[in-house]
Amino acid sequence: MAGQFARLGNDLYTGKRSYDIVGKRRVWFIAAVLLVALSGVLLLARGLNVGIEFRGGSEFTVSGAATTSSGPAEEVLQGIATDQVARVSVVGGDSVRIQTDQLSQEQTEQVAGSLAEAYEVDRTAVTSSFIGPSWGADITAKAVQGLVIFLVLVAIVMALYFRTWSMAVAALIALLHDLVVTVGLYAGIGFEVTPASVIGLLTILGYSLYDTVVVFDKVRENTANVLEQTRVTYEEASNLAVNQTIVRSINTSVVGILPVASILFVGAFLLGAGTLRDIALSLFIGMIVSTASSIFLATPLEAALRMRRPAYREHTARVLELRAESGEAAVVSSSDVRPESERVVATIPGIHLGTTSQPRRKR
Amino acid sequence: MARRSSIARPLYFLLLLLVAIYGTVGIGSATADPEDEGGASFAPNLALDLEGGTQLILTPRADDGQEITSEDIDQAIAIIRQRVDGSGVAEAEITSQGGSNIVVAIPGEVDEETVALITASAQMRMRPVLQVANPGTIDPAAVAAAQAAAESAATDPTAVDPNAVDPNAVIDPNATVDPSAPADGATETPAPDTGADGAMPAEAAAATDAPSDPATETATPEPTEAATPPTAEEIDAAATSAADLDGDGTISSEPLTEPTNPSDQAWLTEQVYYDLYTLDCTLPENRAGGSDDDLAAPLVACSPDGTAKYALGPVELTGSDLTSAQMAYQASSTGASTNIPIVQMNFTNEGGQKFADVTTRLSTSQAPLNQFAIVLDGLVISAPSVNQPIPNGEAQISGPPTDPFTRAAATTLANQLNFGSLPLTFEVQSQEQISATLGTEQLERGMLAGAIGLVLVLGYSFLQYRGLGIVTVASLVVAGALTYGLILLLSWWQGYRLSLPGVTGLIIAIGVTADSFIVYFERIRDEVREGRTLQAAVDHGWIRARRTILASDAVNVLAAVILYFIAVGGVRGFAFTLGLTTVIDLVVVILFTHPLMKLLVRTKFFGQGHRFSGLDPVHLGASVAAYAGRGRARTVAERAAIVANADTRTIAQRKADEARAEAEAAQAQAHAESGVDSDVVVAAPVGATDRVADGDRDTATGTTRTSDTTEENR
Prior knowledge:
heterodimer; A: alpha+beta; 4-stranded antiparallel β-sheet; two-stranded parallel sheet; B: alpha+beta; 6-stranded antiparallel β-sheet; SecD/SecF_arch_bac (chain A); protein transport (chain A); Protein-export membrane protein SecF (chain A)
């Protein structure tokens, strides 16, 4: 299998086999817009199921409990509300503190009674109260502020590094797409959003940009002098770059997702709900989405932005014209194996290596 | 070609780094007091969710029995969070409980000092500004230079008057008169100059306008100006000598002359100067606040964002003199409302009277003496300047005309003022041990997940990259060792604590670190596909991969730094982990993976592209014709044939084989001549005939082959 994969990598690299990703960009754009719209609708219609860290909840304290294990409390809460994740901790030696989502008055009474029974204490030894959010609005505000500053700075850094704004814009749009779709999936599935999932979401931020920067770096390399030759158009050169980095993208994603998947597996199946599952789930979704977007959204978007510039449009027209004159068929057509003469290959002119290529005297 | 030792140099450097990290931790843990929780050890400190800690339940009480609103509780939580973050405790959890209590959970043991810091009442005071300075400490070199200059001028160094020409002239407060400093408040009352609020870096820049005068510049220059940062002792000595106004060698807190009013420069006692010189507002621990108790004494305080430092006179008004504050919009000269946010303050009758007196005095002073500082919880949240007396007990604070407040900034300031108008004290209801919320099970399972993930990553990289998987394994091991060592160091020095999200982040970093190896490997393969020899591909692929890795890691580091400095609580912990793992990724790729590749490619297994090395050129479909010397190129098929039939014998072996073949041929000839059936003899022994064939071909194409072999192995 690995051999076939490497051979696919070879074929994609040399252009023997090529998927027309940039050319079919309209399809990807429509898909992305639909996904984002769906996420928006889900977000508005269902909203996010935020955890007690964000909206506060109910708290019970059992004093003088017979046992301080968390088992009885979890059983009690499962009997009352199934999707509640109880945070149980021992306070001061023989008291048990149980935090859960906001309960109604009736439920509170019921839980307090059951808890007293479960921990073998008098009903009066169980006190209930409600707690405010530990992840308050001020933390969210600061995080959002940091995010906005980061996005602005990253746009500037990328625009300087790639020396074009179109790549920075495309990368940011792809990033926003990843975040919105991940959050939308959360809303759709109805998983609880905890601080751990927010942190997972922030990790995707870095991951998505990492992926996109790697692909764009290849695009930049392939298209460095694209306007100075008349063999390939910009779109073809950038499509070749995506094809050449597909194997790398898949490999990095698999390697990145494997640890996440194992955490998700352990978290969800061995432990049930909790921090591990929350953080791994948002990462799992986000990584898959961001890998897909770095291939199918970022580069086609970049090419589309590029093609709005007259210089690139004229260049494409000229290349196609010359090709028609010489009687060659359009190069980018099928994804099948194609003969050598029809391949789009990177046109990197040779350079003189100077004295560095000369043998050195041994010292 | 570079020698082996120079290639291996980064590896030695990395080894040294690892030894240094673990050596430091080892020495630290050997000498540490076992009772001391923050000491060095070979197990990292764990955060609240994994280890538990101490839970304090606080009840805020207003001194004057006023009712406490939920906004006050929120504000109190923000202040406690600032105190806790400032004291270096990682990821405390602060919630409100039952609408009237505040629950603070702190990882590990809590000492009396921390409790005192958290429960200190948050008081708001208004004090006149005596001097504004840069946030850093004094620069001993500048002091020495100033003293030398003063001595050569032969002035009296023991002058009693601080304003006299003496070594202290460099910090003469009157020299700070700067005509550009007072911002024009137009029709408004206290004109804004420094809304030194943490959320507004631009405002804070305005705050540092005042000390831009060369006189104060000399007094407290940025410590970074010195070539080497001065030690604490040097700063202390320099501050002592500069603050010692009467030259008796001791620092006194008594004013030299009796101050006539709170703005009197006589309040700048030796102690105040000393504090002003030694307080380093750039350090977060000095911005924890909470110490503003002596109402009649002067104070040295920082702005919450650490961009300015103030010497302040005694308290003139307290928070209880203020009834309320709110965000409003500035009225234009015609009375019409504009959209420029300002903060409106209302004083009590008594407070309004006091404020009128203060502003009357301040408005006639020069900058920075015309500023009054609003000190909340020991930090200067705002220091507006006054340019006219304000008699009616109502005042407005606005941003400078060039850089007005944002809505959010004005609201924040108004909230802070409101909170300050209600002096709260925190009563400790209970202080109890609290167990971990997640328990050891989660951590163990997390570790298990990490181990499974690691095995999967290794399995996949062996499958995909064959022999190169070894490079991945070794690099991940090195990255893991570095990360663990750094976490040990940080939990010792910085009080860093590992939470479950932190552990998860580290596990995920396994995959992300492996990403950069893949980028590198793929680049090498690309270069091999281009037809480069393996050694050249490693060098060339590295140059290209390095650029990509640097660019993408730079983005991650940027994210980490920004989130670390702006966000609070859990996000900050995450940013820290992200930055740490990204930097380690860079260090490992540059100092380990690349040198290791360069060494491995010299071995026969990797260098000649063995089938299982992951670098097999045929397998990778090197499809470009390669230069074969003498103006000829060789196609892929030819190259493959050469690799398949490579003659690995030495010249001596080949000559020996040739000689043997010739001898056998001659023998056969002799046999044939002697009448035996020739076919049978030539066919046996089989091995020998093979050699003959080989030898023949070699003789025929000998010269070309020699140059080919050189080409392939270079």
